[in-house]
Every structure is written in C-alpha cells, then in structure tokens.
Amino acid sequence: MPRLFGTDGVRGLANGVLTVDLALNLAQAAAVVLGKGRVADGRRASGRRPVAVIARDPRVSGEFIAAAVAAGLASSGVDVYDAGVVPTPALAYLVADFKADLGVMVSASHNPAPDNGIKFFAAGGTKLPDEVEDRIEAMLDQPKLAPKGADVGRIRRFSDAEDRYLVHLLSTLPHRLDGIHVVLDCAHGAAAGVSPQVFTDAGAKVTVIGADPDGININDGVGSTYLGPLSAAVIAHGADIGIAHDGDADRCLAVDADGNTIDGDQIMAILALSMAERGVLNDRALVATVMSNLGLRRAMAANDIRMVETAVGDRYVLEALAAQSLSLGGEQSGHVIMTKFATTGDGILTGLHLAAEMARTGRTIAQLASAMTVYPQVLINVRGVDHHALKSDAMIASAVSTAEEALGDSGRVLLRPSGTEPMVRVMVEAEHQELAEKIAGGLAAVVRERLAL
C-alpha cells in the first residue's frame, strides 16, 4: 500500500482522496502522537490539555475539512484554537508563539481549488520528519482517545492570529520599504489579507491583484505558477517589483520592472549576498536542492559562500538547515527559509526582505539579480519506465558520463527517479539552450529505451 503522506502532508481531491472521515481520523491519530500536553519546569502541567492551532487557505472545501480536523482533535481531548484563513507560515509561527503542542494547516498550496491537503506541525512550528508521519499513519487503524465530560477539548476562535503574524513580519525587517512600489499577486489565496497590509505598513506603495478569494478561484490563472498577470501589472503600473505568492503563501517568486521573472534561485542569491555582507549568513553557507541552477552555485563560489546540497523538497532543506545551524536555504520554486525568523518557507517574509534589500542598496531588483547568471535548464519527464532500475543500468550510466564529458565545467546533468510514479526526471544545464535540449533529449531516449515497462 502506498504511503499516505507525500512530500508535504496528505494531499488530494477533496471528497475524493481527502474525505471528512480521513480528516477526522488523521486528527485523532495526530492527537495521540503529537498531543502530549505542555511540560512546565520539567513536569507535566497538572490537568493541562494539549493545545492545537489550526488554519486553512480560502478554498471552499477547507471549511468542512477544517471542521473535521477540529472535531477529531477536540474529541481526543485537545483544545483547538482556530486561526481561520491565514498563510501556512503564519500557522507555523503561531504554533511556536502560542506554545501549542501541534498545528494543522488545511491547504493544497499551489494546487487547483478542487484539491486540498492536511499538513501537521509539531511543537515549535516545525514540519514533521518521515518517521513521525509514519507513526500518525500507523495510528489510523488503532483505538483513538475518547475522553469524557470535562476532559474533552474545546474549540475557540484565535481572534488575534493575523495581527500577531503581521507584527512578527514587520519586526524582521532590516530596512523600511519607503519609496518602493510593489505589485502583489496573492493568488486569491491565504495571503490576500496579510500581504497587502504588511507591505503597506512597511512603507511600500502597494498595488494588489489576485486578492479576491471566493473559495473556488484560488491559483486560477494567478499566483506564483502563473506570472503573466503579475508581469503585465508591474509594467502597466510602472512598479519597481512584483511579488507572487501561491495559495498558502509559503512561496515567493518575483518579476522585475520589465516583467522578467526572478525565480527562487535568484532570490536566494540576492538574500545570501545581502546576509553575507551584513554578517548574518551563518557559516557563510546556503542550502539548496539538487535542482537549483548551476548559476547559483557559481555565484556563491565567486563570493566565497558554501553551498549545501539536498534532495528535492523543502523538508530536506529544513533538515540540513537545522543539522548545521544555518540561516538560509530554499528551492528554485520559491520556497525560501530564513531560520532566524521562520520555521518553514514564508513567501511574505521573503518578499519583504527582497524589497528591503532594494531599499537598503538603492539598486533595482534586476541589478541585484544580475549577481547570478541563469543557465539554460531543460527538464524532461520520462514516463512509463522502471524508475527503480535507474541507478543500476550501466548503459544509462555510460550515457550520463559521456554527456558530462561533453559539457565539462560549463554544464550539469542530473537524472533522478520519481518518488511517486514510474518516471525518471532528466535535467540538463548548459551555456546554450540548444545544447541543453540536445543532450537532455538524447539521455531521455536512452532512459526510455533501457527502462521501458
């Protein structure tokens, strides 16, 4: 049976894969695994029920799924504080700030409105390691907690949740944003309330698009996966920068004044160089995944910044940051983690610090991004193949070696199996698009021939 938890919680079609029964059962299982109650002065607090903070993005199915989660927790003796519609990083911050025992975010991030998901956070607002998720999944078929009378949990509204998060964001800024004109694309998602307000409070001139969520328009032609409307708005309004969030606002991508994309790798380069200059980049190191562009690696090397490489997935970036006590990491997709201020990727926080660097230096976002050359990157997904056999096939290994010799120091090859389906991802970077396409196409053909099912 496939693992229920994916790379970022449990996700799928609402009322299809993700049902009310599953949401209820997951919450009850999480109450057993995570709801251990607060410990005070080394002793379990007498009579203290565990506390959970829950939140959701504005997609319509989140209303009944969050209600099921709250019911599952409360019926297991957990006091629930419902933060309503707030970004995922806000939920993570609130779990830590409120000293809760766990948090639950109902969101499918950048997925379309019919999907939804459940993400769990441990005390301190951190994502769960695989082994803890496995313990929750194993509890689904086990007897649940069933307290009676005064021992059942209560469900309360977390009335100042958004204000707490907003104040926190403002407190992180090294420089105000006066004189910066920002266009924000909130993806008709969870950022629609907080992001425009915090940028305004920080001093920026703000123009907003994608900030009218109706429950079914989240990520629909807007946000970090559809940058066209943001680029057009930046040009039309003569803005200095555009910031795009996804549905739950844990990502940030940007566009410059000419509407050109600034991706997660370029954002990390800008922030790493700024933090290194200001002496706040721990161990002068940046954590990024194997998919990050060769140009990022070269830019960091040129500035004596060490690159730490992880598997794809922000959870692996987070693990490396924690293991080495580092301060900055992220993904090309726009998940950027600043560990001094957040326990997970935070798109609003990232956007604020990008704009702050513009204000601090007096440089445009295009000028800041020019510190990194983006190499052409071609990705081909080869489907219908035995991805488990990839590493053991000698002819594929030989083809990769030949490609690497042809590229030399001016490119990079990466083949990796999908973790969820019979597919191999072939990625090639080179100085020229045509060469990258040629080599990627050739490798894809070898993979398809050798591993076809």
Question: How would you characterize this protein structure?
Answer:
The chain is of the alpha/beta class and 453 residues long. The chain folds into three domains: 10-158, Alpha-D-Glucose-1,6-Bisphosphate, Chain A, domain 3; 172-369, 3-Layer(aba) Sandwich (Alpha-D-Glucose-1,6-Bisphosphate, Chain A, domain 3); 377-451, 2-Layer Sandwich (TATA-Binding Protein), CATH 3.30.310. The chain has 14 helices and 21 strands. The strands form five sheets. Strands 1, 4, 5, 6, 7, 8 and 9 form a seven-stranded mixed beta sheet that branches. α1 packs across α4. The longest helix is centred in the last third of the chain and has 19 residues, at 433-451. Residues 38-46 have low confidence and may be disordered. Residues 3-142, 164-259, 263-373 form the Alpha-D-phosphohexomutase alpha/beta/alpha domain. Keywords: Isomerase, Magnesium, Metal-binding, Phosphoprotein. Mg(2+) binds at residues 109, 246, 248, 250. GO terms for molecular function: magnesium ion binding; phosphoglucosamine mutase activity; phosphomannomutase activity.
Task: Describe how the helices and strands are arranged.
Layout: E1 10-13, H1 20-34, E2 39-40, E3 43-44, E4 51-56, H2 61-74, E5 79-85, H3 88-97, E6 102-106, E7 115-122, E8 126-127, H4 130-139, E9 155-157, H5 161-171, E10 181-185, H6 191-201, E11 205-209, H7 228-237, E12 241-244, E13 253-255, E14 261-262, H8 264-277, E15 285-289, H9 294-302, E16 306-310, H10 314-324, E17 328-330, E18 336-338, H11 347-361, H12 365-369, E19 377-383, H13 394-407, E20 412-417, E21 423-429, H14 433-451
Parallel strand pairs: 4-5, 4-6, 5-9, 10-11, 10-12, 15-16, 15-17
Antiparallel strand pairs: 1-7, 2-3, 6-7, 7-8, 12-13, 13-14, 17-18, 19-21, 20-21
Helix pairs in contact: 1-2, 1-4, 5-6, 8-11, 13-14
Active site: 109 (phosphoserine intermediate)
Binding site for Mg(2+): 109, 246, 248, 250
Domain Alpha-D-phosphohexomutase C-terminal: 379-442
